Amino acid sequence: MTDKPQQIQISSDPVKARFDKLKILQDMGRDPFEITTSDRDTNCLEIAEKFDELEGKTVIIAGRVMSKRGKGKVTFLDIHDLSGKVQVFAKRDDLGEDEYAILKRWDIGDIVEVKGFVFKTQMGEVSVHAEAVKLLSKSLQPLPEKYHGLTNTDMRYRQRYTDLIMNADVKDTFLKRSKIISTIRSFLDKENFIEVETPMLVSNAGGAAARPFFTHFNALDEDLKLRISLELYLKRLIVGGLERVYEIGRVFRNEGVDTRHNPEFTLMELYQAYTDYNGMMDLTERMYRHVAKEVTGSEQVVYGEHTIDFSKPFERITMVDAVKKYADVDWNEVEDVETARKIADKLNVEYEDRHKKGEILSLIFEEYVEEHLIQPTFVMDHPIEISPLTKKKPDNPDYVERFEMFINGWEMANAYSELNDPIDQRERFKAQEEALAQGDEEANTTDEDFLNALEIGMPPTGGIGYGIDRLAMIMTNSPAIRDVILFPTMKSLDK
């Protein structure tokens, strides 16, 4: 074993060269992969922010080498950690000939530790003057070229680890996503909500209009589904007296992939006893305004070509009034499904034979209205046919006390005055079963245990679901849902 650098030929191949350098270190008894920890006591941002306090003092930093320049007896390195970057100034006379020779063999991407004192160079750049250095982990694959970065979109999603290294804005996006979730939690904690966890593997996947994924549980020899919603278990907890509950968790829907859809995504659902969908609107306004301020520093958030203003009261409009406003159709004058079909034909809105009057209204809304709802808007009072878990409006039982919130033309939230009548709920489930038999693969099936819970008794309750991924898109000005999911679903490369 020796501490002197080995004089062997290093390959001209950039990948093999890194393995050659690793072999040299291992032959010297200095295998970086045997190091288990670091003595780091300062991050890069602290050195810049606290320069007056730290100037002349010894610090220990650790991070990834992202730039290396210089020649002869002096080398400059840029070291990056989660907080940012700092320049390292290394001299052969300070480190010694052998240590300096090892440092000269460091590659872009290597993870290192540097001990030294804080100072400013003649150019005025805050730096660390290296007194001791250590290679903590050898990078055996070259990173993308610095000035071009990692721009291939498909590769960025598949190799998120490289994307995070090369693109600072990507790292910022996911730090903001984390802040969004922690801000929601702190907001709801102050509103006296209890965070809970409910099953992901279920025998009956209900609570949303979506196709589930199927799996098999070997131990019980039973087919199960991955949940498509959090709703039915959270309502069971309202029955149990928890009164204010929420969950932030993954749900799974066997549907297509596009800029706003990923088959697994993060949903936040909450339920509050003794309120209704009006209470959910008030809560949503407060929460979105608070999240925008905490995450972006402003209640006005730029997304694409629009400035989304959360500071103003959100618009509230019924679905019927929205269709009248943007499609010039007065749905109050539509008496039956035949008339609804004629209107859809005139508007070139596609529908299926099984679709009822209220479902056709929803299809027209999707086609003619959604794109206009740029600023935060609550679209209220949906047709009963598309709302199997929602209370009817007492003055018009063809509609229910439900709203969806739209921003930038996207559905961002879905909320109800929750149906707590077990007799009515059973009839709604029966209608869903009939729709399923007619080919609607997204229809719910009857959940007997949930019905039993309702028969025990659920108080009047308001509930809402928020898509965390779309919220993150808005708050980070990201054009696609894959940009805010660390590891989005991708087709296997060997397919």
Q: What would you say this structure looks like, in words?
A:
It is elongated and about 90 Å long. It has helices at 14-27, 44-49, 51-54, 92-95, 97-104, 153-158, 160-166, 168-190, 231-239, 277-296, 319-327, 337-346, 357-368, 422-437, 448-456, 468-476; strands at 58-71, 74-81, 84-91, 111-120, 126-137, 194-195, 201-202, 214-217, 222-226, 244-252, 264-273, 300-303, 306-309, 315-318, 377-383, 392-393, 396-407, 410-417, 461-467. It has two domains: 14-137, Nucleic acid-binding proteins (OB fold (Dihydrolipoamide Acetyltransferase, E2P), Beta Barrel); 166-314 and 375-484, BirA Bifunctional Protein, domain 2. It is α+β, with helices and mostly antiparallel strands and 495 residues long. The chain has 16 helices and 19 strands. A hairpin with a 2-residue loop joins strand 12 (300-303) and strand 13. Strands 6, 10, 11, 14, 15, 16, 17, 18 and 19 form a nine-stranded mixed beta sheet that branches. Strands 1-2-3-5-4 form a five-stranded mixed barrel. Helix 8 (168-190) crosses helix 10, helix 9 (231-239) runs parallel beside helix 15 and helix 11 packs across helix 13.
List the main descriptive attributes of the protein structure presented here.
495 residues, alpha+beta, OB fold (Dihydrolipoamide Acetyltransferase, E2P), BirA Bifunctional Protein, domain 2, 2 domains, nine-stranded mixed sheet, five-stranded mixed beta barrel, 19 strands, 34% helix
Structural class, judged by helices and strands? alpha+beta
Number of helices: 16
Proportion in β-strands: 25-35%
Query: What is the CA-atom radius of gyration, in angstroms?
Result: 29 Å
How many distinct beta strands?
19
**Helix content class:** 25-40%
